[in-house]
């Protein structure tokens, strides 16, 4: 009987799907000392025409009770030298296998039409997932697109499973993302959300790096209408924004033309705000007549807001800050066994001008654990006590045992 959690990842760059599957399965099973009960597979869009062959070919060589996965325009995995590698615009197959003793694993596929109304009771969402709220489950979700109802699903899970952690991403592939694949056990889907709920002796620690830095000072929203800011600190928002941009350096002014965002503070009472305290949202437009600003989320009066900028240096600094903080806060917890990485298509080499940046930085601070994942069309992760769909973000989920011995920290 296995009583210790195991987590491995294998990455293949072979251009033949059969060869790639054989490579990842053979190496993965050699590394494991017990039968896996969870698998996650990510396949690059270089294999778009062969998505339907993935699960039958895997089933010939791998027997795992629960397997989910999806397609991605980029794939993340751990190569034969134990290094994290991000494969962008090339063939790649990433397979994670885990032995999770004392963990109840519940796979599911949900389409938008099956979602309960947001006014429904928690029981409706619990019936949908098929898992009780205690012990608190952890969720990994892989969705198709906005039509999948992913935002409503995230709200429902937060409502029905308070204290749970939900991470994941939207599948990508096929140029504009029209040709994507979702996998759940022996079935291939093109719409909806596939996922697993993990309940028991397991914890997923999230790191959500949105890649922005604040500029200016925080303002309080004094008037708004859904996603339109009408007043900040009882002043015209556009006037405040113009004054702020005028105070920036020349380099920052250029950056603000294309990389200006708003950050909404998620803790209404926290005075000293840092990276990770804000939910970053796009600025959708301004009304020069009224001075109102439209953003990519609903707001309410009383919330605090600060403008943000994003570039490669800021993105790197943001992730490094969060990794340092995590290492300091979790040093006495049980050691992590593995991690998943869900990174935006807008990051990677296109942002940093060098390969493997986020995954290498992650391994600098969280050492010697396998990492698997993919490049997403949207990233799922918590900010504060709620879960959101993000853009331009890298979400890491670090897996560890909770620890159930007397006196052991939970």
From TrEMBL:
A cellular component term from Gene Ontology for this protein is: plasma membrane
In this chain the FIST domain maps to 35-236
Q: Does the keyword rRNA-binding apply?
A: no
Q: Which domain of life is it from?
A: Bacteria
Q: Which UniProt keywords apply?
A: Cell membrane, Membrane, Transmembrane, Transmembrane helix
Ranges for domain FIST C-domain come to 237-383
Short name of any one Pfam family annotated for the protein = FIST
Q: Where in the cell is it found?
A: Cell membrane
> What membrane topology is given?
Multi-pass membrane protein
Looking up InterPro entries in the UniProt record yields: FIST_C (IPR019494), FIST_domain_N (IPR013702), UCP018953 (IPR016741)
This chain's protein is named FIST C-terminal domain-containing protein
């Amino acid at each position: 009987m296995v009583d210790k959690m195991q987590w491995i990842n294998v990455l293949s760059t072979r251009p033949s799907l059969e060869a790639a599957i054989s490579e990842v399965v053979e190496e993965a099973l050699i590394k494991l000392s017990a039968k896996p009960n969870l698998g996650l597979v990510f396949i690059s869009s270089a294999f778009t025409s062969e998505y339907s062959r993935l699960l039958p070919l895997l089933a010939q060589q791998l027997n795992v009770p629960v397997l989910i996965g999806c397609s991605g325009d980029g794939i993340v995995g751990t190569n034969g030298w134990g290094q994290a590698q991000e494969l962008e615009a090339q063939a790649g197959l990433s397979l994670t296998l885990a032995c999770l003793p004392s963990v109840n694993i519940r796979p599911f596929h949900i389409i938008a039409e099956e979602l309960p109304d947001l006014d429904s009771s928690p029981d409706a969402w619990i019936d949908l997932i098929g898992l009780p709220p205690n012990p608190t489950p952890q969720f990994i979700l892989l969705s198709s697109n906005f039509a999948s109802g992913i935002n409503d699903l995230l709200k429902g899970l937060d409502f029905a499973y308070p204290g749970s952690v939900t991470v994941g991403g939207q599948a990508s592939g096929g140029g504009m993302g029209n040709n994507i694949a979702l996998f759940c056990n022996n079935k291939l889907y093109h719409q909806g959300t596939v996922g697993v709920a993990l309940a028991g002796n397991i914890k997923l620690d999230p790191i959500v790096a949105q890649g922005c830095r604040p500029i200016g000072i925080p303002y309080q929203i004094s008037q708004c209408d859904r996603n339109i800011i009408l007043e900040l600190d009882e002043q015209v928002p556009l006037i405040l924004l113009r004054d702020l941009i005028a105070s920036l350096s020349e380099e920052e002014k250029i950056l603000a033309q294309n990389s200006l965002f708003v950050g909404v503070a998620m803790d209404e009472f926290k005075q000293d705000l840092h990276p990770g305290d804000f939910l970053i949202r796009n600025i959708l437009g301004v009304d020069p007549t009224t001075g109102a600003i439209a953003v990519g989320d609903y707001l309410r009066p009383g919330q605090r807001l600060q403008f943000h900028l994003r570039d490669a240096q800021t993105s790197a600094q943001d992730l490094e800050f969060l990794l340092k903080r995590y290492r300091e806060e979790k040093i006495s917890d049980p050691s992590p066994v593995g991690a998943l990485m869900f990174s935006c298509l807008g990051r990677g080499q296109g942002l940093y001008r060098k390969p493997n940046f986020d995954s290498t930085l992650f391994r600098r601070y969280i050492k010697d654990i396998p990492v698997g994942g993919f490049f997403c069309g949207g990233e799922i992760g918590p900010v504060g006590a709620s879960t959101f769909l993000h853009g331009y973000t890298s979400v890491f989920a670090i897996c560890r045992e909770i620890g159930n011995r007397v006196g052991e920290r939970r």
